[in-house]
Amino acid sequence: MKAVVLDAFGDPQCLVPRHIADPQDRPGWVTVELRAAALNWHDVLVRRGRYRSPLPHVPGADGAGIRTDTGTEVVILPSLFWGDRTDAPASGFEILGDRIPGTYAHYVSVPEECLAPKPAVYSWEEAAALPLVGVTTYRALVSRAGLGAGESLLIIGAGGGVATMALALGRAVGAQVFVTASTPDKLDRARAAGAAGGVLHTAPDWPEQIRERSSGGTGFDVVLDPVGLWDRSLRALRPGGRLVVLGANVAERADMDVRAFFFGQYSLLGTTMGGPADFRGLLGLVADGEVPPPPIARVFPLDEAAEAHRLIEAGEAFGKIVLRP
User: For the Enoyl reductase (ER) domain, which residue ranges apply (predicted)?
Assistant: First the structure.
């Protein structure tokens, strides 16, 4: 089969298309003929060697396609070996494309429990773009932060996959959603997608600027930080608010005022990708028509995976980047 193979860690040019052996059948696993594979920042970290993937390796977490055994159209949950608990994954948890060969290929093999019917109203590209970012965001906002109708949500960094999905899910549960963005264009796109307002986070006082736009100027019930700006994000919370964090691509360390934190009665919630229960909850919202399809920024042929990685690293795309095998 044709696949994109990583022979060494490094720049996008390390992603090389070539032919490799098809996946082998094994009990409890299903081979899927892929129709689309979506990119995530996680894929960039795999390419750079963060997860010490075995080489040579096929990256890619997200995908949608057709089961080769039944012909059913499916979407893939890239959360492998989650375990029985819902509060945190088991010790053997990993993401598809970390060590198990991923979706940058014509075929991929996954545990049968990681397959769900493709949402009928979604295209192949939209379906492929849903799982990782969708289940991650659902877990962050619903399972962890408990965001509910009538509450306010601030999303840090409009334009990325998590932020775009968070805007859709926040509105789906009845919250009023605000955003920060790096460019006026991303801010305009977020407003067009339903954001109540926002500010550019290029100014040093952006937490105070956006806080003034909250109800009564007291701050937001929930702040979603997918980039690692905890110390600044905290300044936009209302007393007693919840800061839910799930990424560190801008900063991996944060200095926080401990005394101000506990006097503010804040909650700091760490989260990563969700499991099967989160996926069921997400697909329930999708089936009810509450979640619009993820916006697609651009679609590349599988052979152009390196160029797709350059685009995601540039941080200029609004929406998901997709490969078409």
Answer: 10-323
Give the CATH superfamily of 135-270. Answer: Medium-chain alcohol dehydrogenases, catalytic domain (3.90.180.10)
Neighbours of 26 (CB within 10 A): 10
Q: Give the chain's length.
A: 325
Block residue for tokens 């890619």: 60
Common-topology check for domains 2-130+293-324 and 135-270: yes
pTM of full prediction above 0.85: yes
Going by C-alpha positions, the residue among 87, 89, 12, 9 that lies closest to residue 51 is 9
Backbone angles phi, psi at 49, to 5 degrees: 95, 10
List, for residues 17-71, the tens digit of each pLDDT value.
999 999 998 999 999 999 999 999 899 999 999 999 999 999 999 999 999 999 9
Residue corresponding to tokens 């540039």: 314
CA gap 244, 151 in Å, rounded: 15
Rounded-to-integer distance, Cα 125 and Cα 198, Å: 28
| Tokens representing residue 148 in the block | 């509910």
The pLDDT tens digits of the residues spanning 105-138 come to 999 999 999 999 999 999 999 999 999 999 999 9
CA distance 296 to 161: 9
Return the CATH class of domain 2-130+293-324: alpha beta
What residues pair up with 269 in beta bridges, in sequence order? 244
